[in-house]
Amino acid sequence: MAQRRHLALVAAGLLSLGAAPGAGALEMHGSTYFTRPPWKVDLICYNTTVWAGAPEYYFTIELNPQAGADLGQITVQQTRGADWSFPYNVGMTRAFLGRPRHEGQAVAVQAQFDDKSRLFTLQFPQPVPAGSTLTVVLRPWRNPSTADTYLFQVVAYPAGPNPVGSPIGLGTLRIYEALAW
What is the pTM of this model? Predict the structure, then answer.
């Protein structure tokens, strides 16, 4: 009975599976979804004092092996923090498989940054396979000028036509005043 209902939905055009190349993505009404989206992001920075030059912000995402789709894009948007104007070196954005300090194979990434909305859009020309651990490295020219807790909302998009994003969490970055001795 369930199989007949599934076939009826496919025939009616309400549900189709397997349209994203090699990913077995879930498609409904012409949009691509994860069947099991990533649900957590880790943000690490090893240099967390105000005005520190050339820090690296590591955003790590674990992709579920049963995600139903490979990862095509993520967005990272600053949603909280006292400094809304610290600039990024967008050309130094990079990605790799693995975690910080355990860097694996490089992953091609195309980065765009909208300073007004504080939004990074990171596209992967070759989708990142489900089951992978991906780290994206953002490089500001310097840390924010004000000590505070900075939050970054991360959204993952499956590879495929008209991808629907899945919010996967907030990366938390604490920036501290430098100690005077």
Answer: 0.84
